[in-house]
Amino acid sequence: MSLLSIVVPCYNEQEMILLFYEKIVEILNQIKNYINFELIFIDDGSEDNTLELIKNISNKDSNVKYVSFSRNFGKESAIYAGLKKSLGDYVVLIDVDLQDPPELIIKMYDLIINSNYDCVATRRTSRNGEPAIRSFFARLFYKIINKISKVGIIDGARDYRFMTRKMVDSILNLKEYNRFSKGIFSWVGFKTKWLDYKNIKRASGTSKWSFWKLLVYSLDGITAFSTVPLAIASILGIILCFIAFIFICVIIVKTLVWGEVVGGYPTLICTIIFLGGIQLFCIGILGQYISKIYLETKSRPIYIVKEEDSIK
């Protein structure tokens, strides 16, 4: 039979490990006569008992494997590590918080086996239970990145997806240090079927994604898949030069023709502050891209493994 790999990134999820394991095994038992499975937990440098709980499960269940990082490298690194460790003909990427309904795996499996799809992905059609400000900026992010990037990202898209081995291998071929998986999934292409579901609250514990972390993550996504911000900086510079030239002409004409005395101090201060702000904004955009280049050229590993399960 074919092998299905379930990749589960975890960070300080001691409240969820057992709940998730029980639920996912219950679902997988419904298709165990058709496909074998392995469950791969990626411990992203957790500081609670997450790793110990995973080890206990692994010792009791030979289908359970794990990788533990030396520190917290982030979810993107955990996703890459899980995909790299997976051996399955098919791979499912799913969060441990049960906000990704595991029961969809059966439908995903049927679609992949019986249809001509390389990937079955999920997206949320509602954000009930989320803070309003967070939902607003999330939707704004999708609108912006879809306008300035050639890689389309579906609004509400989740990392939760069922992929063929060919698609997974294509993703693993992209070894960039600065990773934005939602963009990578779209960039590699392949025929994808989207499944919609409404937002589900966590079964236990709290989200590790603060508003600030999500904001930084969104900026990483924009700079990873679009150079439009650089073009915006250039266009702003051209526009400001043109405006400055017009103002110079106006001042010269007023002074030579009408003899008006141009107010100096307020005009000068406002101009300096305005131009200084624009310059800092453009320098910040350049800095974001330069920082990405800097990190890529260092060629540091995407993650460091502290320990992992022994071969079973």
Automatic annotation (TrEMBL):
Domain Glycosyltransferase 2-like per the UniProt entry, residue ranges: 5-171
Pfam assignment, any one: Glycos_transf_2
Annotated keywords: Membrane, Transmembrane, Transmembrane helix
Protein name per Swiss-Prot or TrEMBL: Glycosyltransferase family 2 protein
Membrane-spanning parts: 230-253, 265-290
GO cellular component, one term: plasma membrane
Gene source species: Candidatus Paraimprobicoccus trichonymphae
SUPFAM superfamilies from the UniProt entry: Nucleotide-diphospho-sugar transferases
PANTHER family on file: GLYCOSYLTRANSFERASE CSBB-RELATED (PTHR48090:SF8), UNDECAPRENYL-PHOSPHATE 4-DEOXY-4-FORMAMIDO-L-ARABINOSE TRANSFERASE-RELATED (PTHR48090)
The organism's taxonomic lineage, starting at the top: Bacteria, Bacillati, Bacillota, Clostridia, Candidatus Paraimprobicoccus
